Amino acid sequence: MSVASVLTDALADFVDVRIPTSVPPPSVPIAEERVYPPATGSHADALEALPDVALIGGTWLVERTVTVGSLTGPATIMATTPGFTVVHVVGHGVRLRDIGIVGAGSSPYDDSVRGVEVTGGGVRLDCCRVMSVRGSGIWAEDCNDLTIRRCRISDVHYAGVMLVGVVGAEVTWCTIDDVVGSATDSYGVAVTRDAYQNGRRSEDVLVAHNRISGVVREGIDTHAGKNITIDNNKITQCGIGIAAVPSHISGVDDMAPLDVSITNNKVLDQDLSRIAGAGIMLVGAYGGLGNTLEQATGVISGNTVRGYGSPDSPNSGGILTYDSRNVRIADNEVDTCAGHGVTLYHDVSSAVVSGNTIIDPWSNSTANAPSAVAARSWYATALVVGNFFGRGDKAATALRAYGVRATSHSTVGVYATSNYTSGYGVTTAGTM
Q1: Contact predicate 345/288, CB 8 Å
Q2: DSSP letter string over 162-219?
Q3: Whole-prediction pTM value?
Q4: What is the pLDDT of residues 21-31, one digit of tens each?
Q5: Cα 362 from Cα 381, distance rounded (Å)
Q6: CA-CA distance, 266 to 274, in Å (whole number)?
Q7: Picking from 124-128, 334-338, 401-405, 427-431, which range would have the lowest pLDDT averaged per residue?
Q8: Which backbone phi and psi does 358 adopt, to 5 degrees?
Q9: How far, in Å, are 57, 119, 195, 428 from residue 131 at the CA level?
Q10: CB distance 161 to 171 below 8 Å
């Protein structure tokens, strides 16, 4: 036998062993089977009868509130008549993804009507769309571990997202616009204490990377929330940008916002046709001058506030705090805000105002003496250090009256040092 034939036989054996003669075709994944609404009968009944973790498609028309388990779209659930909450989530661990929830119009106002109401724990809403609701787009009450991410909410009356007594939550990467309610009650995202039930605070909540516009009153709000982080949001065309304020019962303050972090937000382009208010507010529970019931605490840092405040009020500004303690206002850019750049109103204890750039505070009244930093009332102590007070091209009745101005009173102690001032009075009575 020749060497060549031996090699040929060996190669044939190798091919037979190592390479199969027939290769099975690749497996084909089973197509996702979506459930579509029935041609006849009640879509609400059919929705509630679906198994948990169902894949759905199409448009489901409902004439009453539906209670659902986890659903994945794309699909739409639409109210055919006004006056009821569209979707109610009561189970634990429910997931809604890529679901559209459409009410029957945003007016007239009805607080009991919600696009989605959540009372279950561990709920997550991803990439959902909520619109045309007479009350709030998403309302969550007395629940834990809630995630609302990448949702789009528009044309609602009261609040885009309302968290009432919610502990452990995030509202992130959402777009909220056209909250059409009143100048006293309308919010993009509100994180509030449940003052009407068991008094539970909302705690440990992250509100970040959202785009909020066209809200009559406040872009982002917390009433007496605790450990609330408001970071990297863009807020435009609102009456007030961000408001951390007290909670009250029967009109009387009793709890303040605590440990609120307001950082790296852009608060731009105030809509003066709605309500003219501060860009950022941090306010505690008022019990009368010199008698704060509970002082607000937190930090306001790295924000850009442009064009907010009330031009006719001496107690407004780009950033406003009162009834507060140990608040740090640092490294913000405050540009052409009405009233003052930073306003320390009454009962401000041990505030630090540092590293801010404040341009062109202005007012419609010379009596308001628009200042870069103003301590406007009694019981205020603050260090104002290392800020830049510059001039821009704003034209107004009163402009850049003072760099730092404080009321002359025995309860006021404002120490100002190492601030760069261009075109302002440097200090006035009450400032050391």
Answers
A1: no
A2: EEES-EEEEEES-EEEEE---SSS-EEEEEE--TTTT-PPPEEEEEES-EEEEESSEE
A3: 0.90
A4: 444 555 544 44
A5: 24
A6: 19
A7: 427-431
A8: -125, 125
A9: 18, 20, 27, 51
A10: yes
